Amino acid sequence: MKMHYKVIRDHSEEIRPRPLISKTPTSTVIDLIRKINESNKDTSKKSDNSKEEANKIRANSLPKNDIVKNRIITSKPPVFRRVTTGGLNNTEDLRAKLPPKAPTSGKTASAATLRNSISKDEIIGTGNIDNYIVGTQIGQGAYAIVRSAILKKNNQKIALKSYERNKLVDPHRKRCVKREIDVLEILNHPNIVKLIEVIDTPKHLHLAMEYVGGCSLHSYLKRRPNRRLEEPEARKIFKQVLQAIEYTHGRNVCHRDIKLENILLDEENNVKIIDFGFATCFPHDRKVKLFCGTPSYMAPEIVNRIEYSGPPADIWALGVLLYILVCGNYPFRAQDDKELYKKIQFGQYTIPSSISQGVRSLINRILRLHPEKRPSVTELLKDTWLLSNETGELIENLPDTLQKSSSTGDPFDAEIIFGLKRFGYTDEELKVELQNERSRATLLYKHLKRSKADSSAESFHDNNMSAGFS
After folding, report:
1. Which residues are part of the catalytic machinery?
2. What pTM did the predictor assign?
3. Of 339-348, 445-454, 455-464, where does mean pLDDT reach its minimum?
4. Is 161 annotated for ligand binding?
């Protein structure tokens, strides 16, 4: 028997689609429509100025998405892009876009500004080589060639120091050139060569500098008998060098390569110091450990490769320079650098017997092994031998009867006359006192002269001692 089952579908639980019902009540929609219509009527009644203001407000209003983007952008600090000059290729367009360079005369830049400038490697020239008539070569250095040139606008003669661009790829050479430019831009002294401007071209970097018509001190000595100077001339030149170095040390600048070749003389034998490529600019109490300079002029602390301060190393080089001027050769001489450095380390040098006691004492004061025992440049300028030049002028201005002693007929000793002035005698008093053989000034003069003769006789073991250990 088969059983049949009938399935009855219950439609009461069937899910039917529900009609869309607005979440907003009908009355609310009607109210919104009325407000829109009323606002449109009010807008149409506004004046033209009101319309412009409304348009501005609507223009400044942003959609919701744009407001979010705007907040993200303005929440960050503005980004400024550095202008690149790669596409300009150092042409006239580049020079036109660069700011004008301050004139080099009357510089007031501080040492701190110089230190910040040296820390950057960029060399920017603002001059134009077309403003000059370039002449013949007048000198050559390790990295540069120097030519004479004429500035067209005023016919000023200058020296044009030119570096080849492809030779400045080496970082050390580039730093030396940059350092020289930065140092010269803040120095302004009559015994230091002046930098006029820097000229940048695709193949060369030119330094337009003050023209010095004479020659180097090295060339000048080669023309002199025995390659040395008489003490009055050596005193004049050395004093000018000291005045220039005193000026640089006062501005925390140390030259670090003082030598004959880096001192020029003009037509009147006035000093001009050049080549500040090795110069440093920082407080003197800061020490460095850098092996640089010319071997014959190097201080013991440089040869020993220990930390040293700049000024005492310059002082040592000044002592070597003075020795060469009055003696005609170097105080430290050897067949090779190893032997040379050994002599410098032990301060082994001798002073010829022909050298006066005044300059002998000054050399011994300078060439001391211990840097802290060397005098400063200011102290050197007060040395008796350097000031005796003023006394020599006094003697030249004395009447003929007073230029020589009335009793012996010998010329007065300028160094002793200066000693009398240190005792308080004025020029007029000396002119009167030295006429009388029994005056206090005359008796004191004779006493000082005897003391000087006795001191010269003993003269450091007959001038054969090895100086520099004191």
Report:
1. 257
2. 0.61
3. 455-464
4. yes
